């Protein structure tokens, strides 16, 4: 995972010399957004982009490295400059042109590279117009040679034009912003209208049939600085009838459809946890648990081309003199690294979700058999099974002296995309650190407590490791992670570790009752939630984790001290609610100091956990309502009309920054699976894609659904753990599952099959009370079927997803009537199980 501290980037270019190329200096150690063609492998080494080119190509353009989305303006002058050299002298071409068919050229010039780095430049005038990061491209043509070669470039620049690069977020937005998924019956239901009107506006709530079910007046709020919108608030809490396909309208503007139901939150509780099985390293991801689209072989288990995780040495510069077997654990984020400080808080959050449910709620939702994982029938609660996959990895990161290595990952940044089992990079351990060691101590002590009555031997092993780690940390209280260790993985340096000491001591004291740990707890400057503020907690600020354990789990502290901790949670929760009451898009987030930061969505959720615990400690409904407001923001009630959780909502994130979930870059790979959380808005604009697209964006709009936008659209285990904690809590507070209203459509599917093909007849029946004036059927094939021809409908297939829309003559379907369509297909597999018509799930006959 990348972090803000791992990046360096240039400031705005001088007026009239607008830089068009991004990441042309390669100082961050990453090649993004530079790409390479087949037969070319990009690596950033020593601050240069070096392309290893396989020989035997015919034309110069048969081997390429380049960057897309480069804006050009017709009639404007540009200067293309770069430094370059080759292992073997050869001629290359520097080119500017169009990145999509018909691939029109703007300019090209040949340069004879030598084995010595030299500076090259040429100037041209563009005859094509690709403004605002359109289809413009710069590229180096490296082919046409019989021999293998390596060409390195640096300081790549394209300046000129009259209009600064940049633009606006390309995602379509609505003026009526709602939770795109669902509002829970019995709880407040609020939305946001974008409007400059100063007078209240009438809103209308319609059901799936288009009938008006409620109306009311908006409350004008005026300018909302964080989003840049002028807003009104809409409160339709008085309407509480469960159903699907509701829309909220003001004048001609309508929202995306949404449900009134608790069911989606209950489903998200498990989908957010399924993320962790997807991220497992060192084991096959089996189709029976994730479906064939997301199945893959085990990564990093010493099967070629992997160099494996079973015998990993330290980085050369630290030369620890031993290797460790660190197979297992979760890939931290969109890359293949595994980090103790991220894995620590993520594992703790899952374990705390279970412990909190046992002590204050209902743990039955996490019983054995509730998750789709291989351990689902071993008699252990599935949430603990998933957390153990990471806890065991943390144990493996412990050095012989008791300290824990900070992280391990590839020696250089892994190319995007790269499936885990195809990663050929050497793996390296970074140095041990006090922060990582205390993460291990805290989580191992917490886990020991939870496994005490499940597996006494394992519990004892965990406690021994926790004690050893804590002792080692006290002997090395200031061994900090190197802030410059950011090649191949983020640095995750942390200059203050008093918070980790407090957290680890709190866990060890709660598990053991030992007086030495108690003394460290009560003497800490963080004691009694002294460090909890609206800024919340994260991997580098962990003191509140200790407070949560001391407030939730039984221990020997004075009752007054525990009460004091709980009162701080309520006080901070009140501060959040006060601030949320002034926002256009209510969310528990403090942007007053740093704006919206890398992983802002996880901060929203960690603060929602504070609100949830305040409700647990006080019973006050206002805190519960605040938690659901946070979820509404993440699921679509935000200025981008976007659900930041994959698979949830009509406009949900798809193209997260990930080496395997990389369909945007490789059509054979999947999009992000349901339940994956995007990092969210980051007003610092810390990657090349957002630096080009989002210059000048209001804070809450500094986000784009692009795989290259790693500073806003990456995923991470410690972000999804926050989502899992909050949705688990919210599902518990949502009451019994609601029963959806009867379906107003029915689909009968009958297929005649033969070896390698089928012919299907499909009947669509309107079982509702309103005529269809048009219809759209949608379903997904579970196998390899491909529609080859069809009749009585317009058929279309993308991947496994199939749609059929009406012809001009059969769109009208009256109540009780049917329309008959069909298709032929190649391939084989089971019949589709679920069909929707006009977005509604239909009964199957």
From TrEMBL:
Q: Which domain of life is it from?
A: Bacteria
Name the catalysed reactions: Endohydrolysis of (1->4)-beta-D-glucosidic linkages in cellulose, lichenin and cereal beta-D-glucans
According to the UniProt entry, its GO molecular function terms are:
hydrolase activity
- Which residues are catalytic? 705, 714
Can you give the residue ranges of the CBM2 domain? 738-845
Q: Which UniProt keywords apply?
A: Carbohydrate metabolism, Cellulose degradation, Glycosidase, Hydrolase, Polysaccharide degradation
Q: PROSITE patterns recorded for this chain?
A: CBM2, GH9_3
Q: Which Gene3D superfamilies match?
A: 1.50.10.10, 2.60.40.290, Galactose-binding domain-like (2.60.120.260), Immunoglobulins (2.60.40.10)
Q: What is its EC number?
A: 3.2.1.4
Top-rank EC class of the record's enzyme: hydrolase
Q: Which PANTHER family match?
A: ENDO-1,4-BETA-GLUCANASE
> What family is reported?
Belongs to the glycosyl hydrolase 9 (cellulase E) family.
What is the official name of this protein in its record? Answer: Endoglucanase
Species this protein is from: Lentzea rhizosphaerae
Task: Provide the taxonomic classification.
Answer: Bacteria, Bacillati, Actinomycetota, Actinomycetes, Pseudonocardiales
């Amino acid at each position: 995972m990348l972090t803000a501290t791992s990046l360096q980037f240039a400031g705005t270019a001088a007026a009239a010399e607008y830089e068009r190329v991004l990441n042309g200096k390669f100082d961050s150690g990453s090649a993004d957004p530079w790409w390479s063609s087949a037969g070319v492998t990009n690596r950033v080494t020593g601050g240069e982009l070096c392309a290893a080119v396989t020989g035997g190509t015919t034309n110069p353009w048969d081997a390429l490295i380049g960057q897309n989305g480069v804006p050009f303006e017709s009639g404007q002058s540009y200067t293309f400059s770069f430094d370059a050299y080759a292992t073997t002298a050869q001629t290359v071409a520097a080119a500017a042109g169009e990145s999509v068919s018909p691939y029109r050229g703007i300019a090209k010039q040949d340069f004879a590279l030598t084995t010595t780095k030299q500076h090259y430049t040429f100037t041209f005038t563009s005859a094509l117009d690709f403004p605002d990061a359109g289809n413009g491209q710069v590229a180096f043509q490296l082919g046409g040679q019989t021999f293998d070669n390596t060409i390195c470039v640096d300081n790549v620049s394209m300046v000129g034009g009259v209009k600064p690069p940049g633009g606006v977020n390309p995602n379509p937005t609505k003026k009526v912003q709602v939770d795109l998924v669902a509002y829970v019956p019995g709880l407040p239901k609020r939305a946001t209208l974008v409007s400059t009107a100063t007078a209240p506006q009438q809103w209308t709530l319609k059901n799936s049939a288009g009938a008006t079910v409620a109306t009311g007046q908006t409350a004008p709020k005026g300018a909302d600085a964080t989003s840049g919108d002028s807003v009104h608030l809409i409160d339709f809490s008085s309407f509480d009838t469960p159903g699907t396909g509701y829309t909220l309208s003001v004048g001609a503007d309508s929202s995306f459809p949404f449900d009134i139901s608790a069911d989606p939150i209950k489903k998200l509780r498990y989908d957010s946890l399924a993320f962790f099985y997807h991220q497992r390293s060192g084991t096959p991801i089996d189709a029976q648990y994730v479906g064939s689209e997301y199945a893959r072989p085990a990564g990093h288990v010493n099967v070629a081309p992997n160099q494996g995780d079973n015998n990993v040495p330290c980085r050369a510069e630290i030369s620890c003199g031993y290797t460790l077997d660190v197979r297992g654990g979760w890939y931290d984020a969109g890359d293949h690294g595994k980090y103790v400080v991220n894995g620590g808080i993520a594992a703790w959050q899952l374990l705390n979700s279970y412990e909190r449910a046992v002590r204050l709620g209902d743990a039955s939702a996490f019983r054995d058999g509730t998750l789709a994982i291989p351990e689902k029938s071993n008699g252990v609660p599935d949430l603990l099974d998933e957390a153990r996959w990471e806890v065991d990895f943390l144990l493996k990161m412990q050095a012989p002296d008791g300290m824990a290595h900070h992280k391990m990952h590839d020696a250089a940044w892994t190319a995007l995309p790269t499936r885990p089992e195809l990663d050929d990079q050497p793996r390296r351990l970074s140095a041990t650190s006090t922060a990582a060691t205390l993460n291990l101590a805290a989580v191992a002590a917490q886990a020991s407590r939870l496994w005490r009555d499940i597996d006494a031997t394992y519990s004892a092993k965990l406690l021994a490791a926790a004690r050893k780690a804590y002792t080692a940390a006290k002997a090395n209280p200031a061994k900090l992670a190197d802030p410059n260790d950011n090649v191949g993985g983020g640095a995750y340096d942390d200059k203050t570790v008093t918070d980790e000491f407090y957290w680890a001591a709190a866990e060890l004291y709660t598990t053991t009752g030992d007086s030495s740990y108690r003394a460290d707890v009560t003497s800490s400057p963080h004691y009694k939630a002294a460090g909890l503020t609206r800024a919340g907690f994260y991997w580098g600020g962990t003191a509140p984790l200790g407070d949560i354990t001391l407030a939730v789990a039984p221990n020997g502290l004075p009752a007054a001290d525990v009460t004091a901790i709980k009162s701080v949670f309520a006080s901070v929760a009140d501060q959040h609610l006060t601030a949320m009451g002034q926002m256009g898009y209510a969310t528990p987030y403090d942007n007053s100091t740093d704006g919206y930061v890398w992983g802002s969505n996880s901060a929203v959720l960690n603060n929602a956990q504070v609100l949830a615990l305040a409700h647990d400690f006080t019973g006050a409904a206002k805190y519960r309502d605040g938690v659901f407001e946070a979820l509404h923001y993440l699921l679509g009630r935000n200025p981008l009309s976007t659900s930041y959780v994959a698979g949830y909502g009509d406009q949900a994130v798809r193209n997260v920054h990930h080496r395997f979930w990389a369909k945007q870059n490789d059509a054979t790979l999947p999009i992000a699976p349901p339940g994956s959380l995007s990092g969210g808005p980051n007003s610092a604009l810390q990657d090349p894609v957002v630096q080009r697209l989002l210059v000048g964006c209001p804070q809450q709009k500094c986000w784009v659904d692009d795989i290259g936008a790693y500073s806003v659209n990456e995923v991470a285990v410690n972000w999804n753990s926050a989502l899992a904690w909050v949705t688990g809590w919210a599902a518990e507070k949502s009451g019994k599952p609601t029963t959806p209203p009867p379906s107003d459509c029915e689909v009968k599917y009958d297929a005649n099959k033969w070896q390698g093909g089928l012919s299907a007849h499909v009947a669509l029946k309107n079982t509702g009370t309103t005529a269809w004036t048009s219809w759209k059927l949608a379903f997904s094939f579970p196998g390899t079927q491909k529609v080859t021809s069809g009749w009585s409908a317009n058929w279309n297939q993308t991947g496994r997803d199939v749609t059929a829309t009406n012809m001009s003559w059969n769109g009208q379907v009256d109540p009780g009537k049917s329309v008959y369509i069909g298709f032929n297909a190649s391939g084989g597999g089971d019949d589709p199980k679920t069909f929707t018509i006009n977005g509604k799930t239909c009964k199957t006959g």
